[in-house]
Amino acid sequence: MSRVAVYPGSFDPVSNGHLDVVMAALDLFDLVIVAVLDNPEKRSPLFSAEERVEMLAEALSDQPRAQVRSLRGLTADFAHSQGAVAIVKGLRSGSDFDSELQQAMMNRSLAPSVRTVFLLSQPTHAHLASSILKDVAAHHGDVSGFVPAGAARRLKEKFN
Which of 42, 43, 139, 140 does the annotation list as catalytic? Predict the structure, then answer.
């Protein structure tokens, strides 16, 4: 029996912190589906869902037990439809936990068989937020140490 987890997020752009959470999840689950949220009702992302899927697929190309898919709709429904036993959420700080707890409780109500698992990022990645990375890149700062090579290249292209 394969233990599947879903790791949802906007990944706009993917950071090394996100990849760290994927690697930690791969230590616990047989398959990790990285689900790129495609929610047109929310603020418009810098990268399209297709671009974000491509960046993640490139960054995880050497991880056969990690799959990248686009997700529209409710995470709980998606996780249930994929046969997932868990939804993985990465935490950088206590404030992340506060906001993620409400979502976890709702997901549990919507899909009782799917648990939420919180994974801590490495301390070296605790300061990484996609919004900060976009701001640094927009001001022509070097983000190559914080994102995979493909994301660094795409950020540079967006802001040049």
Answer: 42
Does the reported pTM lie above 0.90?
yes
Could you tell me the CATH number of the domain that includes residue 12? 3.40.50.620
- Choosing from 52, 80, 89, 92, which is the catalytic residue? 92
Is position 130 annotated as part of the catalytic site?
yes
Boundaries of domain holding 73: 4-159
Q: Other CB atoms closer than 10 Å to residue 6's CB: what's the count?
A: 29
Indicate which residue of 10, 15, 121, 130 is catalytic. 130
- Per the residue annotation, which of 18, 52, 80, 89 is the catalytic one? 18
Render pLDDT for 62-107 as a digit per residue (tens, 0 to 9).
999 999 999 999 999 999 999 999 999 998 877 778 889 999 999 9
Q: Per the structure, how many domains does the chain have?
A: 1
Catalytic residue at 42? yes
